[in-house]
Amino acid sequence: MTIVGLAPLAVAEATELARLSLREPDRKRRESQATWIAAESAGSPFFVQELVRYLQSGTTSDLPGLEGLSLEQATLARVMLLSASERKLLEVVCVAGVPMPEDVVLEAANLQENEHLGVAVLRSASLVRSQKNAGGSEYLDSYHDRIREAVTAALSMNERRQINLQVARSYERLHPLEHSPLAIFYDRAQEKEKAGEHALLAARQANESLAFERAALFFEIVLHCDLDEAETRDVRTLYAEALANSGRGAEAAPQYMQAAQGANEANNLELRRLAMEQFLQTGHMQEGLRVMTDVLDDVGLSIASSSSRALASFLVRRAALRIRGLGFRERDASQISEAQLRRIDVCWSSAMGVGINDPI
Protein backbone atom coordinates (compact mmCIF):
# COMPACT_ATOMS: atom_id res chain seq x y z
CA MET A 1 0.00 0.00 0.00
CA THR A 2 1.35 3.41 -0.99
CA ILE A 3 0.65 6.36 1.30
CA VAL A 4 0.46 9.73 -0.42
CA GLY A 5 0.83 12.86 1.70
CA LEU A 6 -1.62 15.65 0.95
CA ALA A 7 -1.12 19.29 1.83
CA PRO A 8 -3.86 21.08 3.84
CA LEU A 9 -6.56 22.90 1.89
CA ALA A 10 -6.09 26.61 1.35
CA VAL A 11 -8.34 28.84 3.46
CA ALA A 12 -10.56 29.64 0.47
CA GLU A 13 -10.89 25.94 -0.40
CA ALA A 14 -11.69 24.92 3.19
CA THR A 15 -14.27 27.73 3.40
CA GLU A 16 -15.92 26.62 0.17
CA LEU A 17 -16.01 22.97 1.30
CA ALA A 18 -17.64 24.01 4.58
CA ARG A 19 -20.12 26.26 2.77
CA LEU A 20 -21.20 23.43 0.46
CA SER A 21 -21.53 21.00 3.36
CA LEU A 22 -23.58 23.21 5.68
CA ARG A 23 -27.39 23.10 5.59
CA GLU A 24 -27.84 26.46 7.31
CA PRO A 25 -30.62 28.39 5.48
CA ASP A 26 -29.51 31.81 6.74
CA ARG A 27 -26.86 32.93 4.24
CA LYS A 28 -25.08 35.33 6.60
CA ARG A 29 -24.93 32.72 9.38
CA ARG A 30 -23.74 30.07 6.91
CA GLU A 31 -20.88 32.34 5.76
CA SER A 32 -19.88 32.99 9.36
CA GLN A 33 -19.90 29.30 10.15
CA ALA A 34 -17.92 28.40 7.02
CA THR A 35 -15.25 30.99 7.85
CA TRP A 36 -14.95 29.68 11.41
CA ILE A 37 -14.76 26.06 10.25
CA ALA A 38 -11.99 26.85 7.76
CA ALA A 39 -9.91 28.50 10.46
CA GLU A 40 -10.55 25.87 13.18
CA SER A 41 -9.93 22.90 10.86
CA ALA A 42 -6.49 24.19 9.77
CA GLY A 43 -7.29 23.05 6.22
CA SER A 44 -8.05 19.41 7.05
CA PRO A 45 -11.02 18.12 4.98
CA PHE A 46 -11.68 15.52 7.69
CA PHE A 47 -11.98 18.19 10.38
CA VAL A 48 -14.10 20.39 8.11
CA GLN A 49 -16.65 17.58 7.95
CA GLU A 50 -16.27 16.93 11.69
CA LEU A 51 -17.08 20.55 12.52
CA VAL A 52 -19.96 20.66 10.06
CA ARG A 53 -21.42 17.55 11.70
CA TYR A 54 -20.99 19.15 15.14
CA LEU A 55 -22.72 22.39 14.16
CA GLN A 56 -25.61 20.50 12.57
CA SER A 57 -26.03 18.09 15.48
CA GLY A 58 -28.27 20.53 17.32
CA THR A 59 -26.07 20.67 20.45
CA THR A 60 -24.92 24.22 19.62
CA SER A 61 -28.27 25.62 18.49
CA ASP A 62 -28.86 27.50 21.73
CA LEU A 63 -25.57 29.39 21.47
CA PRO A 64 -25.79 32.92 20.03
CA GLY A 65 -22.48 32.67 18.16
CA LEU A 66 -19.39 30.55 17.64
CA GLU A 67 -17.44 31.97 20.57
CA GLY A 68 -16.07 29.24 22.80
CA LEU A 69 -16.64 26.46 20.27
CA SER A 70 -13.64 24.38 19.19
CA LEU A 71 -12.62 21.27 17.32
CA GLU A 72 -11.79 19.69 20.69
CA GLN A 73 -15.40 20.18 21.81
CA ALA A 74 -16.64 18.63 18.59
CA THR A 75 -14.35 15.64 19.07
CA LEU A 76 -15.36 15.12 22.70
CA ALA A 77 -19.06 15.40 21.81
CA ARG A 78 -18.62 12.46 19.43
CA VAL A 79 -16.54 10.53 21.95
CA MET A 80 -19.37 10.80 24.47
CA LEU A 81 -21.62 8.90 22.05
CA LEU A 82 -19.33 5.85 22.23
CA SER A 83 -19.97 2.93 24.55
CA ALA A 84 -17.90 2.66 27.75
CA SER A 85 -15.64 -0.05 26.27
CA GLU A 86 -15.10 1.89 23.03
CA ARG A 87 -14.29 5.03 25.00
CA LYS A 88 -11.78 3.09 27.13
CA LEU A 89 -10.09 1.74 24.00
CA LEU A 90 -9.80 5.25 22.59
CA GLU A 91 -8.39 6.61 25.85
CA VAL A 92 -5.71 3.90 25.94
CA VAL A 93 -4.67 4.64 22.35
CA CYS A 94 -4.62 8.41 22.92
CA VAL A 95 -2.76 8.35 26.24
CA ALA A 96 -0.13 6.01 24.77
CA GLY A 97 0.62 8.65 22.14
CA VAL A 98 2.47 6.22 19.84
CA PRO A 99 1.37 3.27 17.66
CA MET A 100 0.52 0.42 20.04
CA PRO A 101 0.23 -3.35 19.48
CA GLU A 102 -3.47 -4.18 19.27
CA ASP A 103 -3.17 -6.99 21.82
CA VAL A 104 -1.68 -4.56 24.36
CA VAL A 105 -4.46 -2.02 23.76
CA LEU A 106 -7.19 -4.62 24.19
CA GLU A 107 -5.69 -6.00 27.41
CA ALA A 108 -4.99 -2.54 28.87
CA ALA A 109 -8.64 -1.66 28.17
CA ASN A 110 -9.71 -4.89 29.95
CA LEU A 111 -11.06 -6.42 26.74
CA GLN A 112 -10.42 -9.84 25.24
CA GLU A 113 -8.52 -10.35 21.99
CA ASN A 114 -11.65 -11.59 20.25
CA GLU A 115 -13.52 -8.36 21.05
CA HIS A 116 -12.56 -6.56 17.84
CA LEU A 117 -15.91 -4.82 17.39
CA GLY A 118 -14.85 -1.81 19.47
CA VAL A 119 -11.71 -1.35 17.38
CA ALA A 120 -13.79 -1.62 14.18
CA VAL A 121 -16.20 1.06 15.48
CA LEU A 122 -13.34 3.44 16.26
CA ARG A 123 -11.79 2.82 12.85
CA SER A 124 -15.05 3.46 11.00
CA ALA A 125 -15.57 6.63 13.05
CA SER A 126 -12.07 7.81 12.01
CA LEU A 127 -10.99 8.09 15.64
CA VAL A 128 -8.20 5.48 15.39
CA ARG A 129 -6.24 4.01 12.52
CA SER A 130 -4.35 0.76 12.22
CA GLN A 131 -1.15 -0.27 10.51
CA LYS A 132 0.98 -3.40 10.30
CA ASN A 133 4.63 -3.47 11.32
CA ALA A 134 7.34 -5.37 9.43
CA GLY A 135 6.38 -8.58 11.23
CA GLY A 136 2.73 -8.28 10.24
CA SER A 137 1.44 -7.38 13.73
CA GLU A 138 -1.45 -4.93 13.97
CA TYR A 139 -0.74 -1.57 15.62
CA LEU A 140 -3.28 1.11 16.63
CA ASP A 141 -2.81 4.88 16.74
CA SER A 142 -5.06 7.92 17.05
CA TYR A 143 -6.41 9.09 13.70
CA HIS A 144 -5.03 12.59 14.22
CA ASP A 145 -2.89 14.40 16.79
CA ARG A 146 -5.73 16.80 17.65
CA ILE A 147 -8.01 13.87 18.49
CA ARG A 148 -5.34 12.47 20.80
CA GLU A 149 -4.80 15.88 22.42
CA ALA A 150 -8.54 16.44 22.97
CA VAL A 151 -9.15 13.02 24.53
CA THR A 152 -6.02 13.16 26.70
CA ALA A 153 -6.73 16.71 27.93
CA ALA A 154 -10.17 15.58 29.14
CA LEU A 155 -8.56 13.04 31.51
CA SER A 156 -7.19 13.89 34.94
CA MET A 157 -3.50 13.37 35.74
CA ASN A 158 -4.38 10.39 37.91
CA GLU A 159 -6.48 8.82 35.11
CA ARG A 160 -3.58 9.22 32.68
CA ARG A 161 -1.18 7.70 35.21
CA GLN A 162 -3.48 4.71 35.73
CA ILE A 163 -3.82 4.12 31.98
CA ASN A 164 -0.04 4.27 31.56
CA LEU A 165 0.31 1.73 34.36
CA GLN A 166 -2.25 -0.58 32.71
CA VAL A 167 -0.41 -0.26 29.39
CA ALA A 168 2.96 -0.97 31.03
CA ARG A 169 1.68 -4.10 32.80
CA SER A 170 -0.03 -5.38 29.66
CA TYR A 171 3.09 -4.70 27.61
CA GLU A 172 5.26 -6.52 30.16
CA ARG A 173 3.01 -9.58 30.15
CA LEU A 174 2.66 -9.78 26.37
CA HIS A 175 6.03 -8.40 25.19
CA PRO A 176 8.44 -8.71 28.15
CA LEU A 177 11.61 -8.13 26.09
CA GLU A 178 10.54 -4.78 24.61
CA HIS A 179 12.34 -2.71 27.23
CA SER A 180 12.05 0.68 25.49
CA PRO A 181 8.24 1.08 25.68
CA LEU A 182 8.20 -0.61 29.09
CA ALA A 183 10.65 1.97 30.46
CA ILE A 184 8.64 4.86 29.03
CA PHE A 185 5.21 3.69 30.25
CA TYR A 186 6.44 2.72 33.71
CA ASP A 187 8.15 6.12 33.96
CA ARG A 188 4.92 7.91 33.01
CA ALA A 189 3.10 5.79 35.61
CA GLN A 190 5.66 6.96 38.21
CA GLU A 191 6.77 3.39 38.89
CA LYS A 192 10.41 4.42 39.23
CA GLU A 193 11.92 1.05 40.15
CA LYS A 194 10.35 -0.78 37.20
CA ALA A 195 11.08 2.16 34.90
CA GLY A 196 14.75 2.19 35.90
CA GLU A 197 15.09 -1.57 35.48
CA HIS A 198 13.80 -1.52 31.90
CA ALA A 199 15.43 1.83 31.04
CA LEU A 200 18.90 0.49 31.87
CA LEU A 201 18.37 -2.51 29.60
CA ALA A 202 16.91 -0.29 26.86
CA ALA A 203 19.85 2.12 27.12
CA ARG A 204 22.36 -0.71 26.73
CA GLN A 205 20.49 -2.05 23.70
CA ALA A 206 20.43 1.44 22.16
CA ASN A 207 24.18 1.89 22.78
CA GLU A 208 24.93 -1.43 21.11
CA SER A 209 22.96 -0.40 18.03
CA LEU A 210 24.65 3.07 18.05
CA ALA A 211 21.31 4.78 18.78
CA PHE A 212 22.98 7.20 21.19
CA GLU A 213 20.10 9.68 21.30
CA ARG A 214 17.75 6.95 22.56
CA ALA A 215 20.41 5.69 24.96
CA ALA A 216 20.64 9.18 26.49
CA LEU A 217 16.84 9.27 26.92
CA PHE A 218 16.85 6.00 28.87
CA PHE A 219 19.92 6.81 30.98
CA GLU A 220 18.12 10.00 32.00
CA ILE A 221 15.14 7.92 33.18
CA VAL A 222 17.51 5.73 35.23
CA LEU A 223 18.99 8.84 36.88
CA HIS A 224 15.55 9.72 38.26
CA CYS A 225 15.39 6.41 40.14
CA ASP A 226 16.61 5.72 43.68
CA LEU A 227 20.34 5.03 43.22
CA ASP A 228 23.22 5.18 45.65
CA GLU A 229 26.10 7.59 45.09
CA ALA A 230 28.31 5.14 43.19
CA GLU A 231 25.46 3.95 40.96
CA THR A 232 24.44 7.53 40.22
CA ARG A 233 28.01 8.39 39.22
CA ASP A 234 28.29 5.36 36.92
CA VAL A 235 24.94 6.02 35.23
CA ARG A 236 25.66 9.74 34.91
CA THR A 237 28.95 8.91 33.20
CA LEU A 238 27.16 6.65 30.73
CA TYR A 239 24.53 9.37 30.21
CA ALA A 240 27.23 11.95 29.48
CA GLU A 241 28.94 9.55 27.07
CA ALA A 242 25.67 8.96 25.19
CA LEU A 243 25.05 12.72 24.98
CA ALA A 244 28.56 13.27 23.63
CA ASN A 245 28.21 10.46 21.08
CA SER A 246 24.91 11.92 19.87
CA GLY A 247 26.51 15.33 19.24
CA ARG A 248 25.15 17.02 22.38
CA GLY A 249 28.51 17.91 23.86
CA ALA A 250 27.31 21.09 25.55
CA GLU A 251 24.90 18.95 27.62
CA ALA A 252 27.44 16.17 28.15
CA ALA A 253 30.11 18.40 29.73
CA PRO A 254 28.12 19.40 32.88
CA GLN A 255 27.13 15.75 33.35
CA TYR A 256 30.79 14.71 33.27
CA MET A 257 31.56 17.43 35.84
CA GLN A 258 28.80 16.18 38.15
CA ALA A 259 29.99 12.59 37.76
CA ALA A 260 33.51 13.70 38.77
CA GLN A 261 32.30 14.82 42.19
CA GLY A 262 33.15 12.19 44.78
CA ALA A 263 35.10 10.01 42.31
CA ASN A 264 38.58 8.74 43.17
CA GLU A 265 41.56 10.79 42.01
CA ALA A 266 42.16 9.00 38.69
CA ASN A 267 38.48 8.91 37.68
CA ASN A 268 37.97 12.50 38.81
CA LEU A 269 40.76 13.67 36.52
CA GLU A 270 39.48 11.56 33.59
CA LEU A 271 35.89 12.80 33.93
CA ARG A 272 37.01 16.44 34.13
CA ARG A 273 39.22 15.87 31.06
CA LEU A 274 36.21 14.58 29.15
CA ALA A 275 34.13 17.55 30.32
CA MET A 276 36.88 19.93 29.20
CA GLU A 277 37.00 18.21 25.81
CA GLN A 278 33.24 18.60 25.27
CA PHE A 279 33.19 22.23 26.42
CA LEU A 280 36.00 23.16 24.04
CA GLN A 281 34.72 21.17 21.06
CA THR A 282 31.28 22.78 21.32
CA GLY A 283 32.66 26.32 21.48
CA HIS A 284 32.13 26.94 25.22
CA MET A 285 35.65 28.30 25.47
CA GLN A 286 35.37 30.14 28.79
CA GLU A 287 34.13 27.08 30.69
CA GLY A 288 36.50 24.79 28.76
CA LEU A 289 39.59 26.89 29.46
CA ARG A 290 38.69 27.14 33.13
CA VAL A 291 38.47 23.35 33.44
CA MET A 292 41.52 22.88 31.23
CA THR A 293 43.66 25.10 33.49
CA ASP A 294 42.73 22.98 36.52
CA VAL A 295 43.26 19.67 34.72
CA LEU A 296 46.65 20.71 33.33
CA ASP A 297 47.72 21.82 36.80
CA ASP A 298 46.77 18.39 38.20
CA VAL A 299 49.18 16.66 35.79
CA GLY A 300 52.00 19.17 36.30
CA LEU A 301 51.46 21.22 33.13
CA SER A 302 50.22 24.72 32.43
CA ILE A 303 48.93 26.84 29.61
CA ALA A 304 50.84 29.94 28.48
CA SER A 305 49.57 33.15 30.08
CA SER A 306 49.71 35.12 26.80
CA SER A 307 49.93 34.61 23.04
CA SER A 308 53.52 35.93 22.94
CA ARG A 309 54.65 33.44 25.59
CA ALA A 310 52.83 30.65 23.76
CA LEU A 311 54.63 31.60 20.54
CA ALA A 312 58.03 31.70 22.30
CA SER A 313 57.42 28.30 23.86
CA PHE A 314 56.33 26.93 20.50
CA LEU A 315 59.50 28.13 18.77
CA VAL A 316 61.78 26.78 21.50
CA ARG A 317 60.13 23.35 21.41
CA ARG A 318 60.19 23.25 17.60
CA ALA A 319 63.93 23.96 17.73
CA ALA A 320 64.44 21.21 20.33
CA LEU A 321 62.45 18.78 18.22
CA ARG A 322 64.54 19.60 15.14
CA ILE A 323 67.73 18.81 17.08
CA ARG A 324 66.27 15.61 18.62
CA GLY A 325 64.69 14.34 15.42
CA LEU A 326 61.42 12.42 14.90
CA GLY A 327 62.68 8.92 15.60
CA PHE A 328 61.05 6.93 18.40
CA ARG A 329 60.79 3.45 19.82
CA GLU A 330 57.23 2.16 19.86
CA ARG A 331 56.15 0.75 23.22
CA ASP A 332 53.00 -0.96 24.41
CA ALA A 333 50.77 1.18 26.64
CA SER A 334 51.34 -1.30 29.48
CA GLN A 335 55.00 -0.22 29.55
CA ILE A 336 54.11 3.41 30.23
CA SER A 337 53.07 4.68 33.64
CA GLU A 338 49.43 5.58 34.31
CA ALA A 339 50.49 9.13 35.18
CA GLN A 340 52.28 9.58 31.86
CA LEU A 341 49.30 8.15 29.93
CA ARG A 342 47.00 10.59 31.70
CA ARG A 343 49.30 13.49 30.75
CA ILE A 344 49.21 12.34 27.11
CA ASP A 345 45.40 12.21 27.15
CA VAL A 346 45.16 15.64 28.76
CA CYS A 347 47.55 17.15 26.20
CA TRP A 348 45.64 15.56 23.34
CA SER A 349 42.26 16.82 24.56
CA SER A 350 43.67 20.31 25.19
CA ALA A 351 45.30 20.54 21.77
CA MET A 352 42.24 19.24 19.93
CA GLY A 353 39.94 21.52 21.91
CA VAL A 354 41.74 24.85 21.44
CA GLY A 355 43.66 24.10 18.23
CA ILE A 356 40.93 25.36 15.88
CA ASN A 357 40.30 28.59 17.80
CA ASP A 358 43.87 29.35 18.86
CA PRO A 359 46.46 27.32 16.89
CA ILE A 360 49.50 28.86 18.60
List the keywords:
360 residues; mainly alpha; three-stranded antiparallel sheet; 18 helices; 3 strands; 65% helix; elongated
Strand order in the sheet with the most strands = 1-3-2
Integer average pLDDT: 88
Please give the number of β-strands. Answer: 3
End-to-end Cα distance, whole Å, is: 60 Å
- For this structure, the quaternary state is single chain
> Helicity, in percent?
55-70%
Overall radius of gyration: 30 Å
SSE pattern: HHHHHEHHEEHHHHHHHHHHH
Per DSSP, the total helix count is: 18
User: What characteristic shape results from the CA principal axes?
Assistant: elongated
**pLDDT under 50 segments (min length 5)?**
none
Secondary-structure content class: mainly alpha
Strand content: under 5%
Largest sheet, described in full?
3 strands, antiparallel
